[in-house]
Specification:
Strand order of the largest sheet: 1-2-3-4
Largest sheet: 4 strands, antiparallel
Number of domains: 2
Low-confidence stretches: none
Bound molecules: zinc ion
Number of strands: 8
Strand content: over 45%
Mean pLDDT: 92
Structural class: mainly beta
Radius of gyration: 18 Å
Amino acid sequence: MATIIYGTRETAKNMGYLGQEESCGACGRTYKKALMKYTSWFHIYYIPLIPYKKTYFNMCPICGAGYDVDKNTAKSLIQAGGVGHPGFEVFAKHILANKQKGLFKADTSYELWVKDLATGEEICIEQNIEKERVNEVKRVRGLKKVPIIDIK
Ligand SMILES: [Zn+2]
C-alpha cells in the first residue's frame, strides 16, 4: 500500500521595500520596510496545492524585526509602490571553518551579515549562531540562498 504524504508548509515572498522610511525599534536603522507575504499551503508529496492562509509582515531589511500588517494595509502598500531599493544581500561568515571536526558539540561560530546594495555598507546583525539559524533566516526572508563565507 502506498503512503500518501501530505501536510502543510509555508512559503515566504518579499513583495518589495514599500511605504515610508521608518526607524527600526530593534536595530535603530532607518529604511523602508520589506513587505513579506507568508502563504500557508496544503501540500501533497510536497507539491503546494491549495493556499489556505496569507499573512503579511513589515520587516526591517537589516535585522528582520517588524510587525504584522493586515491584508488591506498590505494591498495599499503594494498599490502605492514607491522608490525601489536595489535590495540587500544576506550572507553568513563561518568563523571557525577550519576547526577540527567534532571539536564542539554545536558550532556557534556563524555570523549573519546584511549588505546594503545601495551604499555597499556591510552590517553584522547576528553573531555566535549555529548554521540552523542561518537556514531559518533564509526561510523567513524568502531567500533562495544565503552564501556562507568560510573564514580561514
Ligand atoms: Zn532593524
